[in-house]
UniProtKB/TrEMBL annotation:
The chain crosses the membrane at residues 358-380. GO terms for molecular function: ATP binding; protein serine/threonine kinase activity. The keyword Oxidoreductase does not apply. Keywords: ATP-binding, Kinase, Membrane, Nucleotide-binding, Serine/threonine-protein kinase, Transferase, Transmembrane, Transmembrane helix. This is non-specific serine/threonine protein kinase. Residues 417-484 are annotated as: Disordered. CDD domains: STKc_PknB_like. It holds the Pfam family FGE-sulfatase. It is an enzyme of class 2 (transferase). The keyword Nucleotide-binding applies. Residues 430-439 have a biased composition (Low complexity). Residues 20-276 form the Protein kinase domain.
């Protein structure tokens, strides 16, 4: 074992963790210390997070630290920290995770505010990570700058799931107003102490985004309680003026009502992509390259130059017209203000160096414009291209740089079409008209255009024919009638979504109106989302064709690992407490034991729930009384919350079948693979606690120092008397051995690698796992197994059950 001493703040720290070479201390907080280490088995650098010894003294924190770490290990996403190993050594809980050499958002904030485009990039990546985690049923609960780290390539990674969540479940606000957590980033519902979902994380992400732009958190106070009140009552603060472009994002992030916020991480991604697409003049699908400057200096200068020239030319032309006492006709809408505003926004987003270059270029351009003023005067008299035309060219060119291709529809050049779009003219209403020097696009087919020998005037004056409000900017009725085709109203059909559960939230993501049952929609494809806390969100495309559409949707329960479940019984009671075990792979068996060899890889393909405790006398007696089954004896040790004993394999199966009938869920005995996978608790050691020291860990005959075992006597312990493993299961080692479903064979020669039980015709023995209080330490390991006749009843054998998840 190599030990490296580290010295931080003149305090030398030596640490030993088997399988790791500690290099240095990276960070230290109140709950844990993080070290840079080498994982010897694969030679990679890892961040080794070791829980504070103060918290390690509390078995609740210790168990939850390991269990939550294992849950995070089941999240697989490029923007969520990867966990390689969890374990416990000499009362120290540790997690080995990806090493992030790029520091944290907090580190970057210490150097000042973060560039807006960089901030958008970070927020976008973390939003995708949160969407993945929320889809799996996890809520981070403690999102803050310190928990957003960077890989060597600069990508952002979300870390620190689990520990904050465990603390949130076990602590309350103290008398001094301090909360274990981070009040500055806490959502209103967290501050209120009500139930939360993933939208609380999105609120916290919005606080981080605000801080990255403004350099400070939005709500500040000296006391945690005062901060919480501000989250609940204060209006959403405004960003500095230079960042006003992002205020709409902040308003949605920090809405007090979760219903008014972004509803999921992908909504954040969509909003950011649309914003970047508008700034960059690219389709939103290309907006992921946020780190590149989207507008070249030369293009911006050209756009600025053309805009300034067009504006000055117009002013000169107007002055000339006033001097001649002749009105100047303006036939085109103006866009110079919008153009300059967009250029200003892009310049504000640029790095300081580029900003100076652009401003210098702008000054040079202005100087050149004044040199052109004389040519403008002459050009107006000689009927050169007007300043209005140049202004339109400048606006169009700038828009092509800064606005997506489809955007011109937002700046119509055809008042005729815009006026006609809402409705058809009334029967006696004069057809809309427009000046003929505007062209209607697309033009009508040649054969549809009426011909006339009469010249048409291009403008009307007060002396020839007074203009009315309806015809001030219209063309003669014949041309208007030929160019405008009757507006045919698109048929609409009713959409009705029938969700189960009935109170699930239904949204149609690609329309603006809020969904309501029977909403009228045009034919087309629609993005449907149905969600409810505790259930897996469903999102899919549907198509309305030529009739009303009714969509039945049944959501699946979100059974995240570690979730506790109790099924109600008809008599008002509940079934045994179950804990969800996530899908995964592990090495089953032990090559050092004939009965448990060969060791082989097994994959549990889907999650399942297993009883947290061994089935107790209280639970079994309820079944026996309901079915007139024989009550098993308790060996004088007591009933109640002690594990049931003196039951055969068939008795155990009958209990599971009865429970299925009472609850409508499928209960059964565990397979050997499921049992061992759950008993190991995510570790490869023989015992779930890691080492061989078992004092205070289990009830066994020799090696456990159990208070329930004396020199000449022994007994079972009440369930839950000892600490749970990392999956939340109690008493998988010792206390009573447990029946499982499989037929017992000596060795794993016929075992399966998919976790299913071994089934043999005319099976003589059934597998028993976990060892009992009568056996020595070596026989209560996770891999130990033996076989008994299915008719055997013993005071050392009980069972636990599995519930299949929908």
């Amino acid at each position: 074992m190599e030990v490296v001493s580290t010295n931080t703040a003149n305090t030398a720290t030596s640490l030993e963790i088997p399988g790791y070479r500690i290099l240095k201390k990276i960070n230290q907080g109140g709950m844990s210390t993080v070290y840079l280490a080498i994982q010897r088995s694969v030679g990679r650098q890892v961040a080794l997070k070791v829980m504070s010894p103060v918290l390690n003294a509390d078995p609740v924190f210790s168990e939850r630290f390991q269990r939550e770490a294992n849950i995070v290990g089941q999240l697989s996403h490029p923007n969520i920290v990867g966990i390689h190993d969890i374990g416990r050594y000499r009362s120290l809980n540790y997690i080995a995770m990806d090493y992030m050499p790029g520091g944290s958002v907090s580190d970057r904030l210490s150097e000042g505010s973060i560039d807006p485009l960089e901030a958008l990039n970070i927020i976008r990546q973390i939003a995708t990570a949160l969407d993945h985690a929320h889809g799996k049923g996890y809520v981070h609960r403690d999102l803050k700058p310190e928990n957003i780290l960077f890989r060597e390539d600069g990508s952002a990674v979300l870390t620190d799931f689990g520990v904050a969540r465990a603390i949130a479940r076990t602590t309350r606000m103290t008398s001094t107003g301090m909360v274990v957590g981070t009040p500055h980033y806490m959502s209103p519902e967290q501050a209120r102490g009500t139930a939360i979902d993933g939208r609380a994380d999105l609120y916290s992400l919005g606080v981080v985004f605000y801080e990255m732009l403004a350099g400070a958190v939005p709500f500040q106070a000296d006391e945690a309680v005062a901060i919480a009140i501000k989250h609940l009552t204060d209006p959403i603060p405004k960003l500095p003026a230079r960042h006003s472009l992002y205020q709409s994002l902040i308003d949605r992030f920090l809405a007090k009502d979760p219903e008014q916020r972004f509803q999921r991480g992908l909504d954040v991604v969509d909003a950011i992509d649309q914003l970047i697409a508008t700034l960059a003049g690219k389709p939103s699908t290309q907006a992921t390259q946020l780190n590149n400057t989207s507008v070249r200096v030369s293009s911006l200068l050209r756009a600025l130059l053309m805009t300034l020239y067009g504006t000055l030319s117009d002013q000169i032309a107007a002055a000339w017209a006033r001097w001649r006492d002749k009105p100047l006709h303006e036939n085109h809408p103006r866009a110079e203000q919008a153009t300059i505003m967009r250029i200003h926004q892009v310049i504000q987003q640029a790095p300081p160096r580029k900003r100076r270059q652009w401003l210098f270029g702008g000054l040079v351009s202005v100087s050149l414009v004044f040199g052109w003023m004389l040519f403008s005067l002459i050009g107006y008299k000689l009927q050169w291209q007007s300043g209005s035309s140049l202004l339109d060219s400048a606006s169009d060119y700038t828009a092509s740089l800064l606005v997506p291709e489809q955007a011109p529809a937002a700046v119509p050049k055809t008042p005729l079409v815009a006026a006609a779009a809402p409705s058809e003219p009334e029967p006696e209403q004069e057809a809309p008209q427009a000046p003929l020097q505007q062209s209607i696009e697309p033009p009508a087919p040649l054969e549809e255009i009426p011909t006339t020998d009469t010249p048409v005037e291009t403008a009307r004056t007060e002396e020839t024919e007074p203009e009315t409000e309806e015809s001030s900017d219209t063309i003669p009725s014949e041309e208007g009638t030929a160019a405008i085709k009757p507006v045919v109203e698109t048929p609409k059909y009713r959409l009705t979504v029938q969700p189960r559960p009935r109170d699930a939230r239904v949204r149609v993501m690609n329309i603006n109106p809020r969904y309501r049952p029977g909403i009228l929609l045009e034919p087309g494809k629609y993005d449907l989302e149905v969600s409810r806390p505790g259930y897996t969100t469903l999102r899919r495309w549907m198509e309305i064709k030529d009739s009303d559409l009714t969509v039945p949707v049944t959501l699946e329960r979100a059974y995240y690992p570690g979730k506790k479940i109790r099924s109600p019984l008809p008599d008002g009671g509940t079934g045994p407490q179950m804990v969800v075990i996530g899908a995964g792979s592990f090495t089953m068996g032990n090559d050092q034991r004939d009965a448990s060899s060969p060791a082989h890889r097994v994959t549990i393909g889907k999650p399942f729930a297993i009883s947290t405790y061994e089935i107790t006398f209280d639970e079994y007696d309820r079944y026996a009384k309901a079915t007139d089954a024989a009550l098993p004896g308790d060996a004088g040790w007591g009933r109640g919350d002690r594990p049931v004993i003196n039951v055969s394999w068939r008795d155990a199966r009958n209990y599971a079948r009865w429970l299925s009938g009472q609850t409508g869920r499928r209960y059964r005995l565990a397979s050997e693979a499921e049992w061992e996978y759950a008993a190991r608790g995510g570790v490869s050691y023989p015992f779930w606690w890691g080492g061989s020291e078992a004092r205070g860990k289990a009830n066994c005959r020799r090696g456990c120092s159990s208070e329930f075992n004396g020199l000449f006597s022994y007994s079972s312990a009440p369930v839950g008397h000892y600490q749970a493993n990392r999956f939340g299961l109690f008493d998988t080692a010792g206390n009573v051995a447990e029946w499982v479903e499989d037929c017992y064979l000596n060795g794993y020669g016929q075992s399966r690698n998919d976790g299913q039980p071994v089934v043999v015709d005319k099976c003589e023995l059934r597998s028993v796992r976990g060892g009992s209080m009568r056996e020595p330490l070596d026989n209560i390991s996770s891999d130990y197994r033996t076989g008994l006749s299915e008719h055997t009843v013993s005071k050392t054998v009980g069972f636990r059950v599995v519930m299949e998840l929908e």
